[in-house]
Amino acid sequence: MIARLATSALVVLVACNKPPPAPAPTEEDKKPAAVDNAASPRLCEHKVPAELCTRCNPELVEVFKEKGDWCNQHGVPESHCYQCNPKLSFAAADDAKPAGEPWCNEHGVPEAKCTKCKPQLIPKFIEAGDFCREHGLPESVCPHCNPERATAAGHGPPVFPPPGTRVKLASPETEREAGIQTVKVASRKFTDTVTVVGQLDFNQNRLARLSARGAALVVEVKVDVGDDVKRGQPLVVLASGSVGQDQSRLTAAKARVDAAAAALAREQALLADGITSKQSVDNARTELAAAQAEYEGARASLRAAGAAESGSAGQYTLTAPFDGTVVAREAVAGKSVGAETMLIEVADLGSMWALLDVPAEVAPRVRVGQRATIELDGAEPLTGTVSRMSVSVDPRTRTAEARVELPNPERKLLAGVFVRARIEVTAEHEALLVPEEAVQRAQGASLVFVRSAPGEYVPATVKVGGRAGKEVEILSGLTPGANVVTTGAFLLNTEILKDSIGAGCADD
Length: 508
Description:
CATH superfamily of the domain at 193-240 and 314-425: RNA polymerase II/Efflux pump adaptor protein, barrel-sandwich hybrid domain
Number of strands: 27
Structural class: alpha+beta
Radius of gyration: 41 Å
Shape: elongated
Oligomer: single chain
CATH architecture of the domain at 193-240 and 314-425: Beta Barrel
Number of helices: 9
Distance between the termini: 10 Å
């Protein structure tokens, strides 16, 4: 089929898939078959036709590659690749298909209902409410919306683009005017990456949020935001009634311990002189133990509050738990605070976290230990590895969180800054790469256009792998050295879509 475009600058050539009329059966044809399945080819040990097997006949490799029928991933023709086509079979097609109504193999519908080959039928189906506007076929037989119907009829899905399709330009001048550009496909080292966004945050393992141990009054604030502090350095002085009670209890307990210790010593001396009983000594020893327990309890309460044992007026001091920097302050002298109020926040800025939002659909590919490149506006990219990966998806954002720890020796990284990240989800390997603009989508298939001759382009169905930057990995459907269209691929794709209303089953 040849369809001329409105501009008369391009023509799209589509091979007609309509089979030739079957010849009248002869007497020989009417005889029963001598064998069970004479139409089925003889298969070799690799389960493909013996005379076409590239493993048994290595000289055929180049033949298949020249035809664009080659799976680089598995090293066999794409038409022979069981791994890419699990349902592949070389049994004679007629053996498995029951006789039925004539079928349009190009569009995957019965010939009598093919509105692409017979567009005059479209109004009839629209009037009947049986028309799929998305695919331009009757809804009742649309193989895209209802693939099970074609399968039940013993047929496969429609083939797009039809075999033999090519786009030909009217002249070299037209090619230049259309701005079509090509690149030669080459095999290069490639690493599949996932691109995500996120933001920087403090290392939560080296972050302290200090608050009062209970209701208290801020007496004095000794530091401010940005100050570097050392472990044990005083930060905030607080006054608390409960701490004052513990300090008083400690003083009383100490006095009780001293008195009990003196009483025990006296009883022991009297026992040595035979003046008192052993029972009296035991009682004195018990009293001393009780006084010591009360004393230690009061000390523990003050230590938990960060208060000094010798303090007075219920005052105690919050100190830095490690070397770091004050990154937040809510403490103000004279302010009454509770246990839930954060007064001072101290962080170790020697390292930061990049918290990345990984979309749910690619989250299973991200693993701990994978290399990540972090990009910040106005700064050099940083590298790190994924140290943690969330095991759940946020129901609001539908993302999972990945964490990358970044060294920050010069303290240039700031919490809250937005970042972009590329996570390497595969190891480096050789792959065929094409610019992303070369890959077009049509009828559910990924296509590239190969320049077969000056001004002539053939659409090739390809299997797309991973992405890295603006390049796409091609797993099968292309061979190294092919010239594929980059700029102008969209135009060529538009033309074959425009002319997909073919004549596969229409009469001339």
